[in-house]
Specification:
- This protein has helices at residues 27-33, 78-88, 145-154, and strands spanning 16-18, 37-51, 58-73, 101-109, 135-143.
- By secondary structure, the chain is of the alpha+beta class.
- The chain has a single domain, classed as Gamma-glutamyl cyclotransferase-like (Hypothetical upf0131 protein ytfp, Roll), CATH 3.10.490.
- A hairpin with a 6-residue loop joins strand 2 (37-51) and strand 3 (58-73).
- The radius of gyration is 16 Å and the shape is globular.
């Protein structure tokens, strides 16, 4: 499974996987990320489902995949960016009862990348588009436990795992 041991804190500065209003072109991208990232690239979170929310999506563990963007913090702003994103996602700490999201470490696929030193996938190795084809560890904000329970019983899964705002093209953007 792609879940890493939450009791084992990551070392170093991990990138962030985003899949909603923080995506390029979405309302919170410029508000929270402008000037704070040194890299942004398409990425996929496997073994997850995407649910529609009240103007933003929720990802939860499940049998699917979520498309998004992997963000790398610009030099010198990692702690600032981590604090901003924790605040935006209403993350107060591991397992806090008022969390809207939990910040967890997951393996994120970078489409089009192969494992280092390998050409075409060999027998018994992941194929292109499968978890492990080229992966990195990253922070992901998943729906907190209470939100996840509610989504599983009455939420709307977003087919294909791609979230886009429901605003008309060229229309006004609000946070």
């Amino acid at each position: 499974m792609s879940t890493l041991d939450p009791a084992s804190p990551p070392t170093g500065e991990l990138p962030f996987f985003v899949y909603g209003t923080l995506l390029p072109g979405e309302p919170n991208h410029d508000l929270f990320l402008r000037g704070r990232t040194s890299g942004e690239r398409a990425a996929v979170l496997h073994r997850a489902l995407l649910y529609d929310g009240p103007g933003y999506p929720y990802a939860i563990d499940g049998h699917g995949r979520v498309h998004g963007t992997l963000l790398t913090a610009a030099p010198g702003v990692y702690e600032e960016l981590l604090g901003l994103l924790d605040h935006l996602e209403e993350y107060l700490g591991p397992g806090h009862p008022r969390n809207l999201y939990e910040r967890v470490v997951r393996e994120i696929e970078l489409p089009g990348e192969e494992r280092a030193g390998k050409g075409q996938p060999e027998e018994g190795t992941p194929e292109e588009g499968a978890p492990g084809a080229g992966t990195v560890r990253a922070w992901v904000y998943l729906a907190a436990a209470a939100v996840t329970r509610s989504l599983r019983t009455g939420g709307s899964v977003i087919d294909g795992g791609r979230w886009v705002t429901r605003r008309p093209p060229g229309g006004p953007r609000t946070p």
